[in-house]
Amino acid sequence: MKEILIGTAAAMFFAVTFILNRSMELSGGSWIWSSSLRFLFMFPFLLLIVLFRRSCTQVLQEIIQRPLPWFIWSFVGFFLFYAPLTYAAALGPGWLVAGTWQLTIVAGALLAPLFFRTAETPGGTVKVRHKIQGRALGISFVILGGVALIQLQQADQLSASSLVIGVLPVVIAAFAYPLGNRKMMEVCGGRLDTFQRVFGMTLASLPFWLLLGIFGLFTAGPPSSSQLLQTFIVAVCSGVIATTLFFIATDRVKKDQQKLAAVEATQSAQIVFVVAGEVLLLSAPLPNGLAVLGLIVIIFGMSLHSYGTFKTGTRTQYGNHSAKKERNA
User: Fold this and answer.
1) E strands along 122-187, which residues?
2) Cβ-contact 95, 287 below 8 angstroms
3) Where are the transmembrane segments (predicted)?
4) Which of 20, 45, 86, 216 is least enclosed by beta carbons within 10 angstroms?
5) For the segment 30-50, what is each residue's pLDDT rounded down to a tens digit?
């Protein structure tokens, strides 16, 4: 299926983030520039996209109407996501960060009660708080077990405090990313498409990236030409190409829940690409037996998540179809 290949290609480009962030740290580059420059480089590309699609004015109007939510949730969804992630890259190999990053799935399940859906009742339309899905949370903890296994490879090389320092930023990022993005979807209320929302969040988070860059200028000095080039590559590969490919793949199969779940599952391949990339490009040691088992468990858990999404979608479609037949009868 073409969509599977497109989704896998997106995972490969997403993996560039973890590989080059680690490369920049090993060559002496500061994590401050690795994070801030990515979004500063992404902004012109996203601006060109929305200008080409003639949808920039609508984004600006949305931000002007509700500036505070845009700044708050863009800060959470982008700044508190990517700055801790690049900081973690300074403390461990990219595959370790990429593997731990899968905690975002657990975070997504746990954040459900913070959001509401509308429901029709005899008294009218009311907001109902989402519940934590036990099945989804159970599968998420399978992934958590895989994360624990890959951490064990580092246990004999790092102290407990160092390991916590390396993992904690990724945990923060794993919760901040889905929280910020879901809240922004609520703020947008379906009025903006994905490209517009990503552009708007990038624009709203620019002040924070500029401040971080100024801080880096005084504390770490200016970025080297090598770091400028590598962050530019990350911005293009991950911020533009990977996102576009993934949206193309999901858009092509959005009416088929089974195929959509399969495309989403391709993103677990990021970890495989990161391991291969670091071994080939950075001469990193291969993960040991426990870490390899952990990677397999993570991929298996993510596949279960996608399968569960497909089953839920199938039951929903069947239920709607049955209800429609009963009404027609």
Assistant:
1) 124-129
2) yes
3) 31-50, 70-89, 95-116, 136-152, 158-177, 198-221, 227-248, 260-284, 290-310
4) 45
5) 999 999 999 999 999 999 999
